Amino acid sequence: FFFCMDPQAFAVAGDGAVGKTSLIIKLVNSSWEQVMVQPAYESYECTLHINGESVNASIYDTVGQDDFSPTRDLIFSQVSTILLCYSVISPTSFENITEKWLPEIKLNNPKCRIILVATKTDLREDETVLARLTERGLTPISTKQGKNLSKAIDSSFIEIDKSVTAADFSQLLAPKHKKSKITKACTVS
């Protein structure tokens, strides 16, 4: 049903309606589609070009609603990298990064790499969106706020809009190689 920890397996997480599925479709098909309904999770197989190499990747799209927490937990435990998304026009989705998503991810996979993804940045200056936020006493999440959060949670950071391409994620998705420690082995007889 699932896979072993795979360095080319990624999950995309975050609140509902922040643009997770649209991001995946853009990465997989190079087209932008607005998607609203999905099952508990969806998986996509694709070839990503990372550091000049073609890499077969599995991307798992997760649902933000709490009803699907057990499925997410299983997915989170099996991937090497999680693209953790929030919408810059949804302050609640930004707050939930630390209130909901990080605790859930760290509980299930404390060693996974996190890439913080700010979505819908093209709507930050949209007059209609700004008016709706202002009516509720809110403002869009700034780039500085995103960078500060990224630093606080020790993650990579990217801001995206509809023009994002798979190439934009190329460096971020490249496996991180840690320096191996030299260990000494001995035999006791």
From TrEMBL:
Gene Ontology biological process terms from the UniProt entry: small GTPase-mediated signal transduction
InterPro entries referenced in this protein's UniProt entry, alphabetically: P-loop_NTPase, Small_GTP-bd, Small_GTPase, Small_GTPase_Rho
Listed Pfam families: Ras (PF00071)
Single Gene Ontology MF annotation: GTP binding
Signal peptide stretch: none
Keywords: GTP-binding, Nucleotide-binding
Superkingdom of origin: Eukaryota
PANTHER family: RHO FAMILY GTPASE (PTHR24072)
Protein name: Uncharacterized protein
Organism, scientific name: Vannella robusta
